[in-house]
Amino acid sequence: MSSRAVDAAGVAHETGVRHPRIVSLVPSITELLFALGLDRQIVGRTGFCVHPHNKVQQVRKVGGTKSLKVDAIRALRPTHLIVNIDENERETVEQLREFVPNIVVTHPQTPRDNLSLYALLGAIFDREQPAQQLSDALEARLREVASHAFPAQNVLYLIWREPWMTVARDTYIAAMLRLVNWHTLPDVRGGERGAARYPTLDFDRAPWLDSVDRVLLSSEPYRFTQAHCDALKRDPRLAGKRIESIDGELVSWYGVRAIEGIAYLQRRAAGR
């Protein structure tokens, strides 16, 4: 017997499907599905779905998040496809909708949105108990971080170079940083989807740069290294700024990783 669940886009899905076959096109959700104990039900993933490393190696790759192999997905006969508004192209998802019965659309924009994400996937795949355990762990992290008073800091969070790119304030990354009172600059909103969510940056045309306290170079999607940090420290436009690398997965991956990510940011903000 099955019931219905509704995803982030308001689309209903059958829950309790006897033998689900899941293709996940979202790296952080692939990790979450494993955390929910769905190892045997995951039949496809992208090449960027790399956690948990020892388990994803057994799952067939179906391309990248934006360069999918439609025929490979079709051959896997999935009952469920997990997608994300930011990471997957709508046109491709519509093409996949022609032969996949259930498309689960996700779009977490704040750390607390993970609670709904856990509940949604727990209901669809009959994993309510492990989903509740994750919710309890996340709630505990959110209460813990909220109990501390962190000094306010303006941060420039860099995700790419050539061109330099950062994040708008209505992204999940910016919301994570706000948990420790770090506020991203520039102070812009990018909307629900599209390039404006990750604006390009010209250091010579950024009058707000003087207000930045800390420059954070993310380890993904561009793999910034200590060499990049050292080079920016020599840039006179950033004189006096604290420039350091940060674990991009712990800041930008929602799902189960958000639990560890909040604790990580709390340690960073506390200087540990």
Structure described in brief:
By secondary structure, the protein is α/β, with parallel strands linked by helices. The protein has helices at 27-35, 53-56, 70-75, 90-97, 113-124, 128-146, 172-178, 226-233, 248-252, 257-269, and strands at residues 3-6, 12-15, 22-24, 42-45, 60-61, 80-84, 102-106, 153-158, 164-165, 182-184, 200-201, 214-218, 242-246.
Structure description:
By secondary structure, this protein is α/β, with parallel strands linked by helices. The chain has 10 helices and 13 strands. It has helices spanning 27-35, 53-56, 70-75, 90-97, 113-124, 128-146, 172-178, 226-233, 248-252, 257-269, and strands at 3-6, 12-15, 22-24, 42-45, 60-61, 80-84, 102-106, 153-158, 164-165, 182-184, 200-201, 214-218, 242-246. The strands form 4 sheets. It has a 5-stranded parallel β-sheet with strand order 5-4-3-6-7, with helices on both faces. A 4-stranded parallel β-sheet has the order 10-8-12-13. It has a two-stranded antiparallel ribbon with strand order 1-2. It is globular.
Task: Map the helices and strands.
Blueprint: E1 3-6, E2 12-15, E3 22-24, H1 27-35, E4 42-45, H2 53-56, E5 60-61, H3 70-75, E6 80-84, H4 90-97, E7 102-106, H5 113-124, H6 128-146, E8 153-158, E9 164-165, H7 172-178, E10 182-184, E11 200-201, E12 214-218, H8 226-233, E13 242-246, H9 248-252, H10 257-269
Helix pairs in contact: 5-6, 6-10
